[in-house]
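User: Round two. Same drill as before: sequence, then structure, for each protein.

Assistant: Same drill it is. First protein:
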Amino acid sequence: MIAKIHNSIPSIIFALLPVSLISGSLIINLNILIFIFFGILAIYKDELKINFSLANKCIFAFFLVMFVSTFYNQDFQFNEYTLKSIFLFRFLLIYIIFETLYKHQKINIRWFYIISSILGLIIAMDIFLHLFFDSNLFSIESDPYFGFNSLFGEEKVAGGDIFFTLPFTLVLFLKFFENNIKFNILETVLLYIFIAGIFISANKMS
């Protein structure tokens, strides 16, 4: 039982990443650090082998070149820019940890797909409500002349967030609910809702 809970923690933390994206940079970075911590813990405890393939070495070289070039451009001084370049290595750690856990079937990505899909649907439906009824689920005001921002308030990124969740929604149905007519119809309906939400939001895609 304890081992099952231990293996579920990285899956839960990773699945909450889409939620943290709408909660601000502090929550995002906190989510990332917690995932890295429990991911490393799971790899160490289960003695999982990390893949040092050519592709991974190239990715590591890319991050290393970014740091060295930043360090050089800052006249070999440690400041906020070199610190930021070091902090970018957290994305490399996320990739290595996720790849290792996924390769050894220690992480369940289905939860990530489901939460991403639900979040994208909520934002899209919230945009529709604001468009037709001049109010939304969360009572967050936004100027319709500059786009409908849903949960993001004054940040015009709702369309980008829906666009981000769209591929995961498609993969969710294609991989986990294949050969099911009812789910195929639901997938088509969701696809139209997501695309419509992106265009209605009139927000930037990044």
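Second protein:
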Amino acid sequence: MSIRIHPTAEVAPDVQIGEGTSIWHLVQIRPGSKIGENCILGRGVYIDNDVIIGNNVKIQNYVSVYHGVTLEDGVFVGPHVCFTNDMNPRAINPDGTLKSGDDWALSRTRVAYGAALGANSTIRCGVTVGQWAMVGSGSVVTRDVPDYGLVYGNPARLHGFVCPCGEKMEPIKILEDTAKLTCPNCEFEMMLPIEVYQQIQGEKIQ
């Protein structure tokens, strides 16, 4: 499969792009970035320096992915999602001089395999969004999200766990040290440590 780059896109010469990837209108990809195979970058997406994007990643319109962010294979990024990379952002130093590239500390973010970020969500730098996790639209993620975790709100809180198919999972057995969950759609089952399950906001543990 060939690589498709729209004529209006601006792609730095050294960017690595995998086969089958489509880069659409007005996308900007800065130097040093790596884009995997079979990815889709929608209209107006901005990819900063040295960003790493895996295979089969979908990035919807007007997403900003900044330096220090890694998106693993199979990640979905909804429209207008914004990442950050500086925990203490300032335009100027204490003496009033304009900050340079050496005047701040990079804080890295990782979105793991198969995770999905809903439209207009903001991902604070320094967090990890776990495998197959799901972030609700408009959420502000300020802490790590566990594998399969369903989070939403501002700040985002854990409200359950989701199956790889996308359905919210249901608890079927709560033991002293583990919780067993199943998907009502595809019957996928998993076991969670009880301390992870108990992080669910408002959940009553039987």
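The CA atoms of residues 129 and 145 lie 5 Å apart.

User: Perfect.
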